[in-house]
Design goal:
By secondary structure, the protein is of the alpha+beta class. The protein contains three helices and eight strands, in the order H-E-H-E-E-H-E-E-E-E-E. It starts with a helix and ends with a strand.
């Protein structure tokens, strides 16, 4: 259950990380493109939370991206997440191999990126903001545990542009 809660929080974090430059520039300062979550870094947390972050990072290192987002020039965003399709049953039987999910869920939103802050308005009309940095093809979302119902730790979720 804790795994689902953490990954649900990552899904929310992924939604929050959708953003856009106001000028629509498609150069290196533009946020437009397809982004994959490649690293989850937790500042602290329980051993279970740290283990989940390690699993997330291990899968990403194998090019199995559990969270991706497509950011369009018209401030539309699509979040793709395969977290709910991750099969961990082999871990309980001693099989340390985890297959990358082939299915994903998709959610659309609108976004804005201004003054180091990403604002996302989800399909229910709820707007949330989170601090973020864009450095070329790397987008870092700073997670504060109190901002998310299911996540008690803080850290960062790093995306790389394809």
């Amino acid at each position: 259950m804790k795994l689902k809660l953490l990954f649900s929080a990552l899904l929310i974090a992924g939604l929050l990380s959708c953003s856009s430059d106001d000028d629509g520039d498609s150069g290196s300062n533009s946020i437009v493109g397809t982004w994959d979550a490649v690293t989850l870094q937790l500042d602290s947390g329980s051993q279970e939370e740290q283990s989940l972050a390690d699993l997330f990072n291990l899968l990403a290192a194998q090019e199995c991206y559990l969270v991706s987002m497509i950011l369009e020039a018209d401030n539309e965003a699509t979040l793709l997440t395969s977290i709910d399709y991750l099969d961990l049953s082999g871990l309980f039987t001693g099989n340390l191999s985890i297959d990358c999910p082939t299915e994903n869920d998709s959610e659309t939103a609108t976004y804005a990126f201004e003054n180091g802050q990403l604002r996302i308005t989800d399909s229910n009309g709820v707007t949330t903001a989170v601090d973020a940095t864009l450095n070329g093809d790397r987008l870092t979302l700073f997670i504060e545990g109190e901002e998310f119902d299911d996540l008690e730790v803080s850290g960062s979720l790093v995306f790389e542009r394809r």
